[in-house]
Amino acid sequence: MFPLARQASGPVPVILDTDMCGDCDDAGALAILHGLADAGEAAILACIVNSRDEEGAAGAAVSAINTFYGRPGVPLGKYHGGHSKRVRSAYTAALRDGFPHGATADDDLPEATALYRRALAGAEDGSVVIVSIGFLTVLAELLASGPDAGSTLGGMELVRRRVRQLVVMGGQFPASNTRGPEFNFANAEHDGQDARAVVDGWPTPILFSGYEIGAAIFTGPALAASGPDNPVRRAYELYAVESGHALTKGRPSWDQTAVLAAVRDPALDWEVVGGGRCVVTGDGSNTWEPDPQGTHAYLAVKTPPEELARRIDGLMAAAPGCVA
Ligand SMILES: [Ca+2]
Question: Is residue 222 one of the residues assigned to a domain?
């Protein structure tokens, strides 16, 4: 199953499913997705916001970044259910208030699952790559969804036909450690149920970038060279870390690794471990089980993290239109 054959040509059509509002690496991940789109390697079909921002500004933050990169029209969907904790963001309100954007308050944005269904219905069979860099809540809803105005297909069949692969920042590999489940899998308000439903039921291949991959890759300081009109720079500047903020100290690149592995050949930078499946247990903990029929794979370190950090920092800090 893995490595998957690369698509023949043209940009990879991507839907980004983000919990923009908690950590700033979601902003960094969206930045490099735009850089890869500028380079003709990716096409951004839609952005889905799965978090619950106390300020109601997560969608505006996504839109501010999309607008900065010259793509204000990327369709934006928002999760309106209750499967995650409300989070007070360090940066979403500042991006809403200080940068041009085209989004309404989160509560008034289009419903996420309906937007997923419309975006998939309009795509070519076997083409779409979904990149999940937050909770798996909306993906669980998508799989369970029934026919609607967007498509006559049920969610499972719609995904089976249109989605080439799902790339998930989540879990730990080969297994969770004693500190408990990884954050995105656990989704503490919902006891790992969404991750379990998605990982167990997903009908096409899944590639995981586990906690340990991004945790070793510190990025952000390169953004200091960009101007104050860059909302991603502002997000890193506002995100506090021990004795400073992420713009000077850096922050792990959990979400950026998932975007890179989704758009570029992951085997160039990582060992891609396939031949098995990820099993999610009650609280969102996970283990890896060898299975010759398994359709899952996970990233293991190959390229030194310092080299990947330089490359990710370069992509994050590139001005709009300047990634060759
Ligand atoms: Ca995230």
Answer: yes
* C-alpha 241 – ligand 1 centre gap (Å): 16
Q: Compute, in angstroms, the gap from residue 68 CA to the centroid of ligand 1.
A: 20
Answer whether residue 160 is part of any domain: yes
Over residues 196-227, the pLDDT tens digits come to 999 999 999 999 999 999 999 999 999 999 99
> Cβ contacts of residue 65 below 8 Å, gap of 6+?
27, 30, 31, 34, 95, 231, 232
All residues with CB under 5 Å from ion ligand 1: 19, 26, 133-134, 255
- Distance from Cα 120 to the centre of ligand 1, integer Å: 22
For residue range 301-317, what is the model confidence (pLDDT) as tens digits?
Answer: 999 999 999 999 999 99
Classify residue 175 by its DSSP letter: B
How much distance in Å is there from the Cα of 22 to the middle of ligand 1? 7
Predicted model pTM:
0.97
To the nearest whole number, what is the mean pLDDT of the chain?
A: 95
Distance from the CA of 20 to the center of ligand 1, in angstroms? 6
Helix (H) or strand (E) holding 141: helix 137-144
CA of 292 to the centre of ligand 1 (A): 31
Tell me the CB-side half-sphere exposure of residue 135, using CA atoms within 13 A.
Answer: 31
Q: Is residue 131 part of a domain?
A: yes
In a domain, 194, yes or no: yes
Ligand 1 mean position to 25 CA, how many Å?
6
What CATH number did the domain enclosing 124 receive?
Answer: 3.90.245.10
Counting the structural domains of the chain, the total is 1
Distance 186 CA to ligand 1 centre (A): 13
Q: What is the pLDDT of residues 75-91, one digit of tens each?
A: 999 999 988 888 999 99
The boundaries of the domain holding residue 159 are: 12-317
Contact 66, 26 (CB under 8 A): no
Q: Distance (Å, rounded) from C-alpha 131 to C-alpha 213?
A: 16
CA of 65 to the centre of ligand 1 (A): 15
Expressed in angstroms and rounded, the spacing between residue 152 Cα and the centre of ligand 1 is: 31
